[in-house]
């Protein structure tokens, strides 16, 4: 009897796994060197493994500990990519240069990943996969993994719906109110901003289609033997998961194959005792400072470091600072604690944290919004300026331009955040919106991943616009045909008139 019950239980469990789409072999490809991008990707892949899927991840970072059902193919050489560069210097770059640099960076990651010895050995193996999840970062040749394993492709974007996935997903992207992802605009642009936005978008489209995509196609042909033209793969993506939510980004028109899962990485844990005690003892509240995983506080000039040190030393609040060296350039104020790495989600979730000084990265912005913490934004590059601009319009954030950073500007911003309740109230409202979801972002992401497998790639989610050439999509052929049809009567009239006058002249 006991054996029968055990068998019944095992069968029941197996049925549940099959019904829920569990037990899939899933490949994740996350080529970007930024640890924050890897963090959100690995959060998804780790949860897939925890729910019974067999996961393999190709990335330039590693997990700190072994995870059941989770195997890694480490791409060495990218983890410390650009470590010798001071990324604060990028703050002055023009938007068009940022667009060009993004595609060059993506090409570097693509080549480095595919040329890696472990990756090549992996491709030569006889493994099979039910699904491929690939990060979107101007690395289109990596979609070749889906073709190689004959598996549906899910694209994972660490930002929201953007120009880099709109052409592949088939949704419209009106330049009139959708800012370019590397701009510093919101959806509410004046004429000058719209003028710049339109031409940045046009430059991006031309460069992407005339140079970036053809180059990525050559790379794909080089490393995937027999692969068809990349267009056949690039425009056949089953699903797009985007790290976004209207609470922290802005609403844009998307198609059913785009699912927003912003905040899926958020999962609070207990703080280490020293941090817990430090924040618990902050009777006047505390401030958290982090410039993210790519930007490093140690790369600030000594003058800029002293701006923070001097400002913090005058506060009654405690300050927790992600600082990548053992000590500050001057005596450390008694109310300041520095650490080379901090559990950001858990720090922001502490009730005594009253303000977050940030570079405006989307992960940190989402985590602050989730916990209802107002932000002082000092954006530098990428989508940071746009993220901060959007949060300013929501009333949760004060923008302190990097080139205007001083004790006065930082002190004024802190006084406003700490002493004017409107910023805290706005942050709490934003938190309420972000937390008011029918399903958790992680559950939603995994449901749709399993959905794609259950429905064999879910081709019915893709709009017909993906079948059209650009001149068909923008109805250029219809306009040309209309102009031609309208010109025919005019041409005929001109010919008849000319012939009529010639006949008349001859008769006379």
UniProtKB/TrEMBL annotation:
The chain crosses the membrane at residues 470-496. Keywords: Glycosyltransferase, Membrane, Signal, Transferase, Transmembrane, Transmembrane helix. InterPro entries: UDP-glycosyltransferase, UDP_glucos_trans, UDP_glycos_trans_CS. GO terms for cellular component: membrane. It comes from the Eukaryota. Residues 1-23 form the signal peptide. The keyword Transferase applies. It is a single-pass membrane protein. Its EC number is 2.4.1.17. GO terms for molecular function: glucuronosyltransferase activity. The keyword Transmembrane helix applies. It is found in: Membrane. Gene3D superfamilies: Glycogen Phosphorylase B. It catalyses: glucuronate acceptor + UDP-alpha-D-glucuronate = acceptor beta-D-glucuronoside + UDP + H(+). Belongs to the UDP-glycosyltransferase family. This is UDP-glucuronosyltransferase. It comes from Agrilus planipennis.
């Amino acid at each position: 009897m006991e054996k029968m019950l055990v068998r019944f239980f095992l069968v029941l469990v197996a049925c549940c796994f099959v019904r829920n789409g569990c037990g899939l072999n899933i490949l994740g490809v996350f080529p970007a060197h930024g640890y924050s991008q890897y963090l959100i990707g690995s959060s998804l892949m780790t949860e897939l493994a925890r729910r019974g899927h067999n996961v393999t991840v190709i990335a330039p970072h590693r997990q700190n500990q072994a995870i059941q059902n989770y195997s890694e193919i480490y791409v060495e050489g990218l983890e410390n990519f650009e470590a010798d560069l001071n990324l604060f210097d990028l703050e002055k770059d023009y938007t068009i240069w940022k667009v060009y640099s993004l595609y060059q960076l993506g090409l570097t990651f693509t080549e480095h990943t595919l040329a890696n010895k472990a990756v090549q050995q992996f491709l030569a193996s006889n493994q099979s996969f039910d699904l491929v999840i690939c990060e979107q970062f101007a690395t289109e040749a990596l979609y070749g993994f889906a073709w190689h394993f004959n598996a549906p492709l899910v694209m994972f974007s660490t930002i929201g719906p953007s120009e880099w996935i709109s052409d592949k997903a088939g949704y419209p992207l009106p330049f009139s109110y959708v800012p370019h992802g590397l701009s510093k605009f919101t959806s509410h642009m004046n004429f000058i901003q719209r003028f710049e936005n339109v031409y940045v978008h046009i430059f991006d489209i031309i460069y992407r289609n005339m140079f970036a995509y053809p180059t990525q196609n050559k790379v794909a042909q080089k490393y995937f033997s027999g692969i068809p033209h990349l267009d056949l793969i690039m425009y056949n993506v089953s699903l797009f998961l985007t790290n976004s939510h209207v609470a922290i980004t802005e609403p844009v028109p998307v198609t059913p194959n785009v699912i927003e899962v912003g905040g899926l990485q958020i999962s609070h844990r207990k703080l280490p005792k020293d941090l817990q005690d430090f924040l618990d003892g902050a009777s006047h509240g505390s401030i958290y400072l982090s410039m993210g995983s790519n930007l490093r506080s140690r790369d600030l000039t000594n003058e800029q470091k002293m701006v923070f040190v001097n400002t913090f030393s005058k506060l009654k609040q405690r300050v927790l600072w992600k600082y990548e060296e053992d000590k500050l350039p001057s005596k450390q104020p008694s109310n300041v604690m520095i650490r080379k790495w901090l559990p950001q989600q858990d720090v922001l979730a502490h009730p005594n944290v009253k303000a977050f000084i940030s570079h405006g990265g989307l992960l940190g912005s989402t985590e602050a919004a989730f916990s209802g913490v107002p932000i002082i934004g000092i954006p530098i590059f990428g989508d940071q300026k746009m993220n901060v601009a959007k949060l300013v319009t929501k009333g949760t954030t004060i923008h302190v331009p990097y080139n205007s950073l001083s004790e006065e500007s930082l002190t004024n911003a802190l006084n406003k955040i700490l002493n004017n309740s409107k910023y805290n109230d706005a942050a709490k409202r934003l938190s309420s919106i972000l937390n008011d979801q029918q399903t958790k972002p992680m559950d939603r992401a995994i449901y749709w991943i399993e959905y794609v497998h259950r429905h064999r790639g879910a081709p019915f989610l893709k709009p017909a616009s993906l079948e059209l050439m650009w001149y068909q999509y923008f109805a250029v052929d219809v306009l040309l045909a209309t102009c031609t049809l309208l010109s025919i009567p005019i041409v005929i009239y001109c010919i008849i008139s000319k012939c009529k006058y010639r006949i008349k002249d001859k008769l006379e």
